[in-house]
UniProtKB/TrEMBL annotation:
Keywords: Coiled coil, Membrane, Transmembrane, Transmembrane helix. Residues 242-376 form the GGDEF domain. SMART domains: EAL (SM00052), GGDEF (SM00267). Residues 346-402 form a coiled coil. Pfam families: EAL, GGDEF. It comes from the Bacteria. It comes from Leptospira biflexa serovar Patoc (strain Patoc 1 / ATCC 23582 / Paris). Residues 385-630 form the EAL domain. Signal peptide: none annotated. PANTHER family: CYCLIC DI-GMP PHOSPHODIESTERASE PDEF (PTHR33121), OXYGEN SENSOR PROTEIN DOSP (PTHR33121:SF71). This is Bifunctional diguanylate cyclase/phosphodiesterase. The chain crosses the membrane at residues 21-42, 54-72, 79-98, 104-121, 128-150, 165-183. GO terms for molecular function: cyclic-guanylate-specific phosphodiesterase activity.
Amino acid sequence: MITDKRNYVYWLKFRKDTGPLLRRFLFAASGLFFAAACLHLTPLLTKSGEIDFIFFTVDLGISVLFLLEYILKNKVPLIIRVLTLIGTAIFISVLSFLRSGLLGTGEISLAFIIITFFVFLPPIPSLVSAILISIVPAIFGICVYLSVLFFPEELGMRNQSPTEWFFKSVSLFIFSILSGFLIQRLRAKLIKNIVYLKESRAKILKSNQQIDKLAYFDSLTQLPNRYLFERSIQNRISLGQSEAYVLLINIKGIKVINALHGIGFGDQILTLIGNILKQYTLERPDIMVASLGGDEFILWIQNSSRTRIEDAIVKFDLNNNQTLTPDRLGHRLQYRVSGIHFPTEANDLDEVIRKLSIAMNVAREESIRHLVWFEPEMEKKIEREQKLKNQLEKAIENSEFRIAYQEKVDIKTQTVVGLEALARWNVLEFGDISPEEFIPIITKSDLIVPFGKNIFQKVVSQIPKLLESYGHQIKISINISPIFFLYPNFNEYVIEYLKKQSVDPNILIFEITEDVFIDEIETIQKIVSSLRSNGISVSLDDFGKGYSSLHYMQKIQFDELKIDKSFLDDIAISDRNFLLLESICHLADSLGLKTIAEGIEREEQIIRLKKTSCHIVQGYIYSKPIILFE
């Protein structure tokens, strides 16, 4: 049953696919039989012989039959068409047999109609119709046998023999079976090939659609990707929409979510954010949103202003959406936005995205939470940073950095008790570069270890001259980067180099900031213990900036505590700050630590400091960093 149903479906598909060709065949066949019918009328023109009206009727009838099938293709039910074909064929055949007996148009017409049935009708109706048509000669044979029908003598004795008529019926029956089997097999293969080709075409179309989807849409968020975004924007520009604001949105919390819940959960969050942005812009044809991949999205906004966009960004909060609540995510989603005006500040989409990225870097570095508009100075800063970065490796390799020393003064004795070594760098194109500028570039360029070694070695090489100038009682402080401090075998490297240069380790103080302790407190504890056991002092620098310094002081034995400038600026005018300073000094005294006040610039601060146990001062009030030997 399933096979029959499938075959019938194949036949329907075959009729649908080959219908136009078969209808043209019907029309042509109708025309040919009509021409044949017209030939029987030639005696009217030649005025010789007689018109054979029976043959004329047969040919004309077949012509009309095919023409009706052509015209009434889908307007008459199938059963009526089949019965009409069978009845008409029998009628035409009877006329033909009555006129010519066993031979002539009747036999040819029946064979032609049988083949037509198998071509135009479904398998089962075509077979039943062909068998019914094949019975017609047998009916003539029965009529002859019962003496109901007599043929003229000129048609021959064969026409008067029932056996001949039965033989003719059997022949047509066999012809029906064989021709039907052959046509059905050929048609089945043709249908399967057609179906296969159509299915292949459908698969190719589906594959092309999938390829287009991959080519034009982000697979995760289903938003347009950068390629489709650029094409769409170019189309808008070509249609005259040439002015717009472009925003770049960066989601902050995704890395934390990936760490807490896995990358799959992070992908779900990005998908939800994509849906929110899509809904946010769905009813705004003047806004287009796209994904740049990862945690970045880009928006093209027409018919707006900076003020309206800034207000919308402030009001827009991802966490207001019920699906992105901090309780559900385990982390509050935050985002940064950079913006630019097109085409005033950039007239090319590549340039737009590049400048948006520059503004986004500013937002990241300065921890700006919401919108940062691109400014030309940002690009100049990036260009300057890139030029400096290109020269840094060469500067480290050629030891182009110089060392400046700032004195540490005992405010009770007014004597210099120490020096802090500070790196200085001069570039021919830009002049003197501040450490606040080149140190972050060195860190981002992964050059901090070779830089640290270079500075350390240069300071060590200058220690003999420093002792000669300031006396053997002074100590030299060197700032050590957290990355360099945690460098494998840092202790061994320092001790061996000091031995090689014959420098007493007790002269050195390594100043480290508390950011070195993040997730590495046990390692730092071992390093500090090893350094102190070899005579090198360790100072906790920039105390007062962070939030966990007391915890580190509890875990690690330091020698000095350097109080940050920002903590000391107001001690002369703020009693509260002064009381905090006194408390810190008492705490340091109880732990056996020296306290150093850095960044002192005014006499009023000195007066206040003299009332505490902190009597070593470093600042412009006594000396600026000076390059002594180069």
